[in-house]
Amino acid sequence: MRLFRRRQPWEQNLLVLWFGNFMAGVAFSLIMPFMALYIDTLGNFTQLQLNFWSGLTFSSTFLVTAIVSPLWGRLADRRGRKLMLLRASLGMAFVLGSMGLVNSVYQLVALRLLQGVFSGYISNANALIATSVPREQSGKALGTLTTGNVSGTLLGPLLGGLIADLFGYRATFFVTGGILLLVFLLTFFLVHETFTPIAKTDQVSGGQILKQLKYPHVIIGMFVTTLIIQASNNSISPILSLYVRQLLGGHGKVALISGIIASIPGIATLIAAPRFGALGDRIGTQKVLMAGLAFGILVYIPQAFVQNAWQLGGLRFLVGIVDAALLPQVQTLLAKYSPHQNAGRIFSYNQSFQAMGNMIGPLIGSTVSGVFGYSSIFFATSLLIIVNFVWVRYSTKELQEEA
Q1: Among 141, 393, 138, 383, which Cα is nearest to 286's?
Q2: Which are the contacts of 18, defined by CB distance < 8 A and separation ≥ 6?
Q3: DSSP code of 118?
Q4: 281 vs 390, higher pLDDT
Q5: Per-residue model confidence (pLDDT) at position 89
Q6: Model pTM?
Q7: Using CA atoms, how far apart are residues 190 and 340, in angstroms rounded to an integer?
Q8: Are 3 and 130 in contact (CB under 8 A)?
Q9: What are the φ/ψ torsions at residue 21 (nearest 5 degrees)?
Protein backbone atom coordinates (compact mmCIF):
# COMPACT_ATOMS: atom_id res chain seq x y z
CA MET A 1 0.00 0.00 0.00
CA ARG A 2 1.14 3.56 -0.77
CA LEU A 3 0.57 4.56 2.85
CA PHE A 4 3.20 2.10 4.09
CA ARG A 5 5.72 2.49 1.23
CA ARG A 6 9.36 3.18 2.02
CA ARG A 7 9.79 6.93 2.21
CA GLN A 8 12.71 9.10 1.18
CA PRO A 9 14.57 10.86 4.01
CA TRP A 10 12.99 14.25 3.25
CA GLU A 11 9.51 12.69 3.28
CA GLN A 12 10.16 11.11 6.70
CA ASN A 13 11.49 14.43 7.95
CA LEU A 14 8.33 16.12 6.70
CA LEU A 15 6.06 13.71 8.60
CA VAL A 16 7.94 14.11 11.89
CA LEU A 17 8.34 17.87 11.57
CA TRP A 18 4.66 18.32 10.68
CA PHE A 19 3.76 16.72 14.03
CA GLY A 20 6.40 18.83 15.77
CA ASN A 21 5.08 22.03 14.17
CA PHE A 22 1.55 21.10 15.16
CA MET A 23 2.51 20.63 18.79
CA ALA A 24 4.62 23.81 18.81
CA GLY A 25 1.56 25.69 17.53
CA VAL A 26 -0.58 24.08 20.23
CA ALA A 27 2.00 24.93 22.90
CA PHE A 28 1.98 28.62 21.96
CA SER A 29 -1.82 28.93 21.89
CA LEU A 30 -3.42 26.40 24.26
CA ILE A 31 -3.40 28.78 27.23
CA MET A 32 -5.47 31.41 25.40
CA PRO A 33 -8.98 30.23 26.44
CA PHE A 34 -8.24 30.23 30.16
CA MET A 35 -5.18 32.44 30.67
CA ALA A 36 -7.10 35.06 32.65
CA LEU A 37 -8.89 32.36 34.65
CA TYR A 38 -5.61 30.59 35.49
CA ILE A 39 -3.99 33.87 36.53
CA ASP A 40 -7.03 34.61 38.71
CA THR A 41 -6.27 31.45 40.72
CA LEU A 42 -2.75 32.72 41.43
CA GLY A 43 -3.72 35.77 43.47
CA ASN A 44 -6.38 38.23 44.56
CA PHE A 45 -6.64 40.65 41.61
CA THR A 46 -8.93 43.50 40.66
CA GLN A 47 -10.39 43.39 37.14
CA LEU A 48 -7.89 46.01 35.97
CA GLN A 49 -4.97 44.04 37.43
CA LEU A 50 -6.26 40.82 35.89
CA ASN A 51 -6.47 42.44 32.44
CA PHE A 52 -2.94 43.81 32.84
CA TRP A 53 -1.38 40.49 33.87
CA SER A 54 -3.28 38.58 31.17
CA GLY A 55 -2.01 40.94 28.47
CA LEU A 56 1.55 40.85 29.78
CA THR A 57 1.56 37.06 30.09
CA PHE A 58 0.23 36.63 26.56
CA SER A 59 2.53 39.10 24.79
CA SER A 60 5.78 38.42 26.68
CA THR A 61 6.51 35.19 24.79
CA PHE A 62 6.14 36.83 21.38
CA LEU A 63 8.28 39.80 22.39
CA VAL A 64 11.19 37.54 23.39
CA THR A 65 10.69 35.36 20.29
CA ALA A 66 11.00 38.41 18.03
CA ILE A 67 14.29 39.35 19.72
CA VAL A 68 16.06 35.98 19.99
CA SER A 69 14.97 34.28 16.74
CA PRO A 70 17.76 35.82 14.61
CA LEU A 71 20.35 34.70 17.18
CA TRP A 72 19.16 31.09 17.00
CA GLY A 73 18.97 31.34 13.22
CA ARG A 74 22.61 32.38 13.06
CA LEU A 75 23.58 29.41 15.25
CA ALA A 76 21.45 27.09 13.09
CA ASP A 77 23.39 28.09 9.98
CA ARG A 78 26.64 27.26 11.81
CA ARG A 79 25.69 24.08 13.68
CA GLY A 80 22.71 22.66 11.82
CA ARG A 81 18.95 22.90 12.01
CA LYS A 82 18.39 19.57 13.75
CA LEU A 83 20.35 20.74 16.79
CA MET A 84 18.06 23.79 17.02
CA LEU A 85 14.99 21.58 16.70
CA LEU A 86 16.19 19.49 19.64
CA ARG A 87 16.98 22.60 21.71
CA ALA A 88 13.57 24.13 21.07
CA SER A 89 11.47 20.99 21.64
CA LEU A 90 13.26 19.93 24.84
CA GLY A 91 13.27 23.46 26.22
CA MET A 92 9.57 23.96 25.50
CA ALA A 93 8.72 20.59 27.04
CA PHE A 94 10.20 21.55 30.41
CA VAL A 95 9.04 25.18 30.34
CA LEU A 96 5.43 24.31 29.42
CA GLY A 97 5.34 21.50 31.97
CA SER A 98 6.67 23.84 34.66
CA MET A 99 3.84 26.31 34.07
CA GLY A 100 1.54 23.81 35.75
CA LEU A 101 3.57 24.13 38.97
CA VAL A 102 3.63 27.92 39.43
CA ASN A 103 2.31 29.56 42.59
CA SER A 104 2.37 33.21 41.50
CA VAL A 105 1.77 35.29 38.41
CA TYR A 106 5.40 36.43 38.50
CA GLN A 107 6.57 32.85 38.05
CA LEU A 108 4.12 32.39 35.15
CA VAL A 109 5.34 35.54 33.36
CA ALA A 110 8.96 34.44 33.88
CA LEU A 111 8.22 31.06 32.29
CA ARG A 112 6.37 32.70 29.40
CA LEU A 113 9.46 34.84 28.81
CA LEU A 114 11.60 31.70 28.93
CA GLN A 115 9.24 30.03 26.47
CA GLY A 116 10.15 32.76 23.98
CA VAL A 117 13.85 31.97 24.50
CA PHE A 118 13.19 28.37 23.46
CA SER A 119 11.45 29.39 20.25
CA GLY A 120 12.73 28.32 16.85
CA TYR A 121 11.24 24.89 16.25
CA ILE A 122 8.97 26.08 13.44
CA SER A 123 11.51 28.30 11.66
CA ASN A 124 14.18 25.59 11.75
CA ALA A 125 11.72 22.94 10.56
CA ASN A 126 10.95 25.19 7.59
CA ALA A 127 14.66 25.74 6.93
CA LEU A 128 15.48 22.02 7.12
CA ILE A 129 12.69 21.05 4.72
CA ALA A 130 13.44 23.97 2.38
CA THR A 131 17.07 22.89 2.04
CA SER A 132 16.42 19.14 1.64
CA VAL A 133 13.26 18.78 -0.46
CA PRO A 134 13.51 18.61 -4.29
CA ARG A 135 12.92 22.14 -5.58
CA GLU A 136 10.05 21.10 -7.85
CA GLN A 137 8.15 19.88 -4.78
CA SER A 138 9.08 22.67 -2.40
CA GLY A 139 5.69 24.42 -2.60
CA LYS A 140 3.74 21.28 -1.78
CA ALA A 141 6.15 20.22 0.99
CA LEU A 142 6.24 23.64 2.68
CA GLY A 143 2.47 23.94 2.24
CA THR A 144 2.03 20.65 4.06
CA LEU A 145 4.46 21.70 6.79
CA THR A 146 2.65 25.02 7.23
CA THR A 147 -0.60 23.23 8.04
CA GLY A 148 1.06 21.80 11.16
CA ASN A 149 1.85 25.17 12.72
CA VAL A 150 -1.34 26.91 11.59
CA SER A 151 -3.71 24.12 12.60
CA GLY A 152 -1.88 23.69 15.93
CA THR A 153 -2.12 27.42 16.66
CA LEU A 154 -5.80 27.57 15.79
CA LEU A 155 -6.82 24.24 17.32
CA GLY A 156 -4.73 24.85 20.45
CA PRO A 157 -7.34 27.03 22.18
CA LEU A 158 -10.01 24.36 21.68
CA LEU A 159 -7.74 21.54 22.90
CA GLY A 160 -6.58 23.61 25.86
CA GLY A 161 -10.14 24.45 26.81
CA LEU A 162 -11.24 20.82 26.62
CA ILE A 163 -8.35 19.49 28.72
CA ALA A 164 -8.77 22.27 31.28
CA ASP A 165 -12.49 21.59 31.53
CA LEU A 166 -11.93 17.85 32.08
CA PHE A 167 -8.80 17.80 34.23
CA GLY A 168 -8.12 21.36 35.41
CA TYR A 169 -5.86 24.16 34.23
CA ARG A 170 -2.59 22.70 35.52
CA ALA A 171 -3.09 19.35 33.80
CA THR A 172 -3.12 21.14 30.44
CA PHE A 173 0.50 22.17 30.88
CA PHE A 174 1.61 18.70 32.00
CA VAL A 175 -0.04 17.05 28.98
CA THR A 176 1.49 19.55 26.56
CA GLY A 177 4.94 19.21 28.15
CA GLY A 178 4.73 15.43 27.79
CA ILE A 179 3.77 15.65 24.13
CA LEU A 180 6.61 18.09 23.42
CA LEU A 181 9.00 15.64 25.08
CA LEU A 182 7.70 13.06 22.58
CA VAL A 183 8.39 15.57 19.79
CA PHE A 184 11.99 15.84 21.06
CA LEU A 185 12.43 12.06 20.97
CA LEU A 186 10.87 11.70 17.51
CA THR A 187 13.07 14.51 16.20
CA PHE A 188 16.18 12.98 17.75
CA PHE A 189 15.65 9.51 16.32
CA LEU A 190 13.74 10.09 13.07
CA VAL A 191 14.83 13.43 11.62
CA HIS A 192 17.94 13.22 9.43
CA GLU A 193 20.05 16.13 8.26
CA THR A 194 23.13 16.21 6.10
CA PHE A 195 24.95 19.29 7.29
CA THR A 196 28.52 20.54 7.20
CA PRO A 197 29.26 22.86 10.14
CA ILE A 198 30.45 26.37 9.22
CA ALA A 199 33.20 28.09 11.19
CA LYS A 200 32.12 31.24 12.98
CA THR A 201 34.75 33.25 11.11
CA ASP A 202 33.33 32.05 7.77
CA GLN A 203 29.76 33.09 8.54
CA VAL A 204 28.59 36.26 6.82
CA SER A 205 26.66 39.06 8.50
CA GLY A 206 22.98 39.83 8.00
CA GLY A 207 23.86 42.79 5.78
CA GLN A 208 26.08 40.60 3.60
CA ILE A 209 23.26 38.07 3.26
CA LEU A 210 20.98 40.78 1.89
CA LYS A 211 23.67 41.80 -0.60
CA GLN A 212 23.99 38.18 -1.78
CA LEU A 213 20.26 37.84 -2.47
CA LYS A 214 19.20 37.90 -6.10
CA TYR A 215 15.86 39.49 -5.16
CA PRO A 216 16.23 41.24 -1.77
CA HIS A 217 12.90 43.06 -2.27
CA VAL A 218 11.15 39.70 -2.47
CA ILE A 219 12.62 38.42 0.80
CA ILE A 220 11.94 41.66 2.70
CA GLY A 221 8.46 41.77 1.14
CA MET A 222 7.72 38.29 2.45
CA PHE A 223 8.87 39.27 5.96
CA VAL A 224 6.39 42.16 6.00
CA THR A 225 3.71 39.96 4.44
CA THR A 226 4.17 37.42 7.25
CA LEU A 227 3.74 40.18 9.84
CA ILE A 228 0.52 41.44 8.22
CA ILE A 229 -0.91 37.92 7.81
CA GLN A 230 -0.38 37.20 11.51
CA ALA A 231 -1.70 40.61 12.55
CA SER A 232 -4.82 40.01 10.43
CA ASN A 233 -5.34 36.53 11.86
CA ASN A 234 -4.97 37.72 15.46
CA SER A 235 -6.76 41.07 15.25
CA ILE A 236 -10.02 39.42 16.26
CA SER A 237 -8.51 37.42 19.14
CA PRO A 238 -9.17 39.90 21.98
CA ILE A 239 -12.82 40.44 21.02
CA LEU A 240 -13.91 37.14 19.46
CA SER A 241 -15.77 35.83 22.52
CA LEU A 242 -17.31 39.26 23.12
CA TYR A 243 -18.45 39.48 19.49
CA VAL A 244 -19.92 35.97 19.70
CA ARG A 245 -21.71 36.91 22.94
CA GLN A 246 -23.20 39.93 21.18
CA LEU A 247 -24.36 37.77 18.26
CA LEU A 248 -25.93 35.29 20.69
CA GLY A 249 -27.73 38.08 22.50
CA GLY A 250 -25.91 37.28 25.73
CA HIS A 251 -27.37 33.76 25.89
CA GLY A 252 -26.07 30.29 25.06
CA LYS A 253 -22.70 28.58 25.39
CA VAL A 254 -20.51 31.53 24.50
CA ALA A 255 -17.19 29.91 25.48
CA LEU A 256 -17.84 26.69 23.55
CA ILE A 257 -19.08 28.44 20.41
CA SER A 258 -16.18 30.92 20.57
CA GLY A 259 -13.74 28.02 20.80
CA ILE A 260 -15.31 26.32 17.80
CA ILE A 261 -15.26 29.52 15.71
CA ALA A 262 -11.63 30.18 16.72
CA SER A 263 -10.68 26.69 15.53
CA ILE A 264 -12.60 26.63 12.24
CA PRO A 265 -9.91 28.45 10.20
CA GLY A 266 -7.34 25.83 11.24
CA ILE A 267 -9.50 23.04 9.81
CA ALA A 268 -9.82 24.85 6.48
CA THR A 269 -6.07 25.55 6.33
CA LEU A 270 -5.27 21.93 7.16
CA ILE A 271 -7.33 20.78 4.17
CA ALA A 272 -6.36 23.41 1.61
CA ALA A 273 -2.72 24.44 2.23
CA PRO A 274 -1.00 21.46 0.54
CA ARG A 275 -3.27 21.90 -2.49
CA PHE A 276 -2.46 25.58 -2.83
CA GLY A 277 1.23 24.78 -2.38
CA ALA A 278 1.08 22.28 -5.24
CA LEU A 279 -0.91 24.78 -7.34
CA GLY A 280 1.82 27.37 -6.76
CA ASP A 281 4.42 24.89 -8.02
CA ARG A 282 2.41 24.58 -11.24
CA ILE A 283 1.19 28.10 -12.07
CA GLY A 284 3.50 30.34 -10.06
CA THR A 285 3.78 30.98 -6.33
CA GLN A 286 3.24 34.74 -6.52
CA LYS A 287 0.03 34.30 -8.55
CA VAL A 288 -1.52 32.17 -5.80
CA LEU A 289 -0.30 34.67 -3.19
CA MET A 290 -1.91 37.63 -4.97
CA ALA A 291 -5.16 35.74 -5.51
CA GLY A 292 -5.24 34.79 -1.82
CA LEU A 293 -4.84 38.42 -0.75
CA ALA A 294 -7.61 39.56 -3.10
CA PHE A 295 -9.91 36.86 -1.73
CA GLY A 296 -8.98 37.87 1.83
CA ILE A 297 -10.30 41.40 1.28
CA LEU A 298 -13.63 39.94 0.15
CA VAL A 299 -13.78 37.57 3.15
CA TYR A 300 -13.05 39.98 6.01
CA ILE A 301 -15.49 42.78 5.16
CA PRO A 302 -18.71 40.66 5.39
CA GLN A 303 -17.77 39.56 8.93
CA ALA A 304 -18.76 43.05 10.10
CA PHE A 305 -22.35 42.46 8.95
CA VAL A 306 -23.13 38.93 10.18
CA GLN A 307 -26.39 38.42 12.07
CA ASN A 308 -25.55 35.21 13.92
CA ALA A 309 -22.60 33.14 15.10
CA TRP A 310 -22.96 30.52 12.37
CA GLN A 311 -22.57 33.11 9.62
CA LEU A 312 -19.40 34.25 11.38
CA GLY A 313 -18.23 30.63 11.56
CA GLY A 314 -18.76 30.17 7.83
CA LEU A 315 -16.74 33.28 7.01
CA ARG A 316 -13.99 32.23 9.44
CA PHE A 317 -13.77 28.96 7.49
CA LEU A 318 -13.06 31.07 4.41
CA VAL A 319 -10.36 32.90 6.42
CA GLY A 320 -8.69 29.50 6.78
CA ILE A 321 -8.81 29.13 2.98
CA VAL A 322 -7.14 32.54 2.67
CA ASP A 323 -4.39 31.46 5.10
CA ALA A 324 -3.89 28.28 3.08
CA ALA A 325 -3.32 30.39 -0.03
CA LEU A 326 -0.93 32.81 1.69
CA LEU A 327 1.29 31.09 4.24
CA PRO A 328 2.75 28.26 2.08
CA GLN A 329 3.49 30.72 -0.74
CA VAL A 330 5.45 32.99 1.60
CA GLN A 331 7.53 30.04 2.84
CA THR A 332 8.08 28.83 -0.73
CA LEU A 333 9.29 32.22 -1.99
CA LEU A 334 11.66 32.46 0.97
CA ALA A 335 12.98 28.97 0.19
CA LYS A 336 13.37 29.58 -3.56
CA TYR A 337 15.18 32.90 -3.34
CA SER A 338 17.38 32.39 -0.25
CA PRO A 339 20.86 30.82 -0.23
CA HIS A 340 20.62 27.36 1.37
CA GLN A 341 23.61 28.00 3.61
CA ASN A 342 21.77 30.95 5.17
CA ALA A 343 18.27 29.48 5.21
CA GLY A 344 18.26 29.19 9.01
CA ARG A 345 18.71 32.92 9.46
CA ILE A 346 16.24 33.85 6.72
CA PHE A 347 13.51 31.73 8.30
CA SER A 348 14.40 32.94 11.79
CA TYR A 349 14.06 36.56 10.63
CA ASN A 350 10.68 35.59 9.24
CA GLN A 351 9.73 34.11 12.63
CA SER A 352 10.60 37.43 14.25
CA PHE A 353 8.18 39.21 11.93
CA GLN A 354 5.60 36.50 12.66
CA ALA A 355 5.97 37.10 16.40
CA MET A 356 5.63 40.85 15.89
CA GLY A 357 2.43 40.23 13.94
CA ASN A 358 1.15 38.08 16.81
CA MET A 359 1.71 41.05 19.14
CA ILE A 360 0.46 43.82 16.87
CA GLY A 361 -2.75 42.08 15.76
CA PRO A 362 -4.42 41.87 19.19
CA LEU A 363 -3.35 45.46 19.96
CA ILE A 364 -5.01 46.68 16.78
CA GLY A 365 -8.11 44.59 17.49
CA SER A 366 -8.59 45.72 21.06
CA THR A 367 -7.85 49.40 20.28
CA VAL A 368 -10.02 49.74 17.16
CA SER A 369 -12.93 47.75 18.60
CA GLY A 370 -12.74 49.70 21.86
CA VAL A 371 -13.11 53.01 20.02
CA PHE A 372 -15.40 52.12 17.10
CA GLY A 373 -17.11 48.85 18.11
CA TYR A 374 -16.60 45.18 17.31
CA SER A 375 -17.56 45.37 13.62
CA SER A 376 -14.91 48.01 12.91
CA ILE A 377 -12.06 45.56 13.41
CA PHE A 378 -13.00 43.72 10.22
CA PHE A 379 -12.77 46.93 8.18
CA ALA A 380 -9.38 47.66 9.77
CA THR A 381 -8.20 44.13 8.96
CA SER A 382 -9.39 44.49 5.35
CA LEU A 383 -7.39 47.72 5.11
CA LEU A 384 -4.33 45.82 6.34
CA ILE A 385 -4.81 43.23 3.61
CA ILE A 386 -5.20 45.92 0.94
CA VAL A 387 -1.88 47.40 2.08
CA ASN A 388 -0.38 43.90 1.93
CA PHE A 389 -1.75 43.37 -1.61
CA VAL A 390 -0.07 46.56 -2.84
CA TRP A 391 3.13 45.69 -0.96
CA VAL A 392 3.35 42.17 -2.44
CA ARG A 393 2.62 43.45 -5.94
CA TYR A 394 5.49 45.92 -5.59
CA SER A 395 7.96 43.56 -3.89
CA THR A 396 7.43 40.72 -6.40
CA LYS A 397 7.50 42.99 -9.46
CA GLU A 398 10.92 41.61 -10.45
CA LEU A 399 9.55 38.05 -10.43
CA GLN A 400 6.59 39.05 -12.59
CA GLU A 401 8.89 40.70 -15.12
CA GLU A 402 11.16 37.63 -15.13
CA ALA A 403 8.16 35.34 -15.79
Answers
A1: 393
A2: 144, 145, 147, 148
A3: T
A4: 390
A5: 94
A6: 0.73
A7: 22
A8: no
A9: -65, -40
